[in-house]
Amino acid sequence: MSERSETRRTLDAIWRIEGAQVVATVARVVGDLGLAEDLAQDALAEALDQWPGSGIPRNPGAWLTSVAKRRAIDGWRRRERLDDRYRAIGRDLSETVEHDWEPIRDDVLKLVFAACHPVLSRDARVVLTLRVVAGLSSEEISRLLLVPVSTVQQRVVRAKRSLAAARVPFEIPETGEWPERLGAVTSVVYLMFTEGYAASSGEEWVRRDIADETLRLGRILVSLVPREAEVHALLALMELQASRFAARRGVDGAPVLLEDQDRRRWDRGQIDRGVRALERADALGRGRGPYALQAAIAACHARASSVEETDWHEIVALYEALEQVTRNPVVTVNRAVAMAMASGPLVGLRFLDDADLSALRSSYLVPSVRGELLRRAGRRGEAAEELRRAVELLRDGPQRRVIEAKLAALAPT
Known about the structure:
single chain
């Protein structure tokens, strides 16, 4: 591998960990989210040019932030606004405790709220936050949201232009503005965690950097809006799902599915935190929304000592309620799996075949699940055919390797 290629791999890893903070810090200075991301991308390009010769800096995130700020200054100089902007940077660099009146000083959370401004459509808010905060590529967002890559790219460009035109401030909004933004914020935090829990691409099955950051944001959100049941429920869901991380990968990094996990490796302290968060959500008496229902499903798994001891009938009921609330075809597929576990694979197959899953026609999910249920029903030939279809719909990555292993196990000996 060339030195430049090795530097690019290192930069990718650094960006996954520190990219959101770099963009957030620059956005606080320049006051423009779109410009901040462009400057951060310029800094990445400069790093790719310089680091192969000079080596990786001791603090690469600070280096990227510094370069992005310097490029901002160069731009202001060309536009003859250097003096005002220098004063802005001076204030930024000399912050002291006198500014502690702010309810919370978290630049990444401010970045989320800026990206979720009501001037944008819901779809634009979600795509922009996944791009700028989670650092996902257009291809990754496309797979996560089941939309074409070109659609993702267009939404990002339009969203940046809309924020710039509206002069959206880089700040956490006043409490009166929370209701119109909170739904979008929880949506993108949930999608960010989903990407961290089961990466849509790449070699890593779990992206702990993204998952840990969204957990941190979820805990901050709970402190900001302690009377919002679904925020507590979202945190409960993330805590419960994250409790399995240590068991979701084998020693070789290969994915380990739920039924094969060593439950002794699940983080019981994190499970307890998740259960308490769900109890707080229920105690607010608003009824269970989509995050609370998913958290309740995760809690069913957490309480069971094995797959066989799991209350699958309870999980089926929870998925049925979730399906009514969300009308999400992925939930329908998961309900079919739970029905198969509760009442046998043929029951799950019949339900799956009767469902309207046209929105998932280009996804590997349906053929992979049908293949698994057919395998459990002893219909090995049909199972192999479905699993081959699933493999064809997947790029190389952990999920594809899981399905390929199942397919290999069906081959005649």
